[in-house]
Amino acid sequence: MADTRWLDEGQQRAWRAYLGMQGRLTAELNRQLQSTSNLSLADYDVLVQLTDTPDGRLRPFELQRALGWEQSRLSHHLSRMQRRDLVGREECGEDGRGAYVVLTDAGRQAIADAAPGHVEAVRRLFFDALDPDEVETLYRLASAVLDRLDAAAARR
Amino acid sequence: MADTRWLDEGQQRAWRAYLGMQGRLTAELNRQLQSTSNLSLADYDVLVQLTDTPDGRLRPFELQRALGWEQSRLSHHLSRMQRRDLVGREECGEDGRGAYVVLTDAGRQAIADAAPGHVEAVRRLFFDALDPDEVETLYRLASAVLDRLDAAAARR
DNA sequence: TCAACCTACATGACGCGTCATTCATTCCAC
DNA sequence: GTGGAATGAATGACGCGTCATGTAGGTTGA
User: Fold this and answer.
1) Is the per-residue pLDDT at A156 higher than 70?
2) pTM
């Protein structure tokens, strides 16, 4: 591998800026959510998915695909959320192996309380810094990279 | 907070795509680095910073600023890297409170071995999916958000 | 029908990241 | 110079994420 093609100047600074933004933005949003609502970003994402279904109930593997998480991460996270009474687990009649994850009243309340402040933070720290063109480009860019990642995941 | 301004359509999908890309790209790069070089992305970043100095030696607070990390994260991480003999700690003459973090031979070797494969992965999963305009926009976008984050950090 | 295989999910171990706290040293106003 | 604030750094506790593994239940085909 003596002939590595390194990143060019523009790629380098873009990558560095992206990494910096990524890490610090995630940390800051996490802090905001945690301190004002006692939720993590991960909790928030799970609750959003459950809230988006009519009966607040999903099979873990559906959640997994919607979130793009690893299976064991989801399982661990659900256990922690269950301990805090944000979600419950129920047996699944159709499939003896399976289960249902159910939004509890406390969970529903938690995300309803947290959402406005979180959206506000996302807007303030992120979208207020961008013009519409940049937002559109971000969408295209992220979608293209996601396709790459899907291909890589399929290859694994 | 009854009058929350939610995200518009374009912002929603951009945000979702960004979050998806962010999480999965980080996970994938971590996996690649871990499995081929037994290093984490965090290890890699620390080693890069140390390699960039003439004598492979930095004060922790300099590393902290360069990486944009929390102080305690860095301290914990350096302890773990020290246990694996990737870095060493030395006393600091000029300031009795301070210390030096020093790149070990093993650390220097580790990043030299890891760099080609990592850069290759970054290129394959990320830059190969983008055209130059998108890279340029990403840089502008990330820089703008970083400014926001600096402002938020200063306010804290 | 039953063995081989696959799918849905859980768990233990271990490294990572944050918060709160602690400690020593240095800086500075007076 | 000295008491108080600020700075540089470490640590314990605890939630998070990954890998490897385990297990029960479904599916398929000879």
Assistant:
1) no
2) 0.92
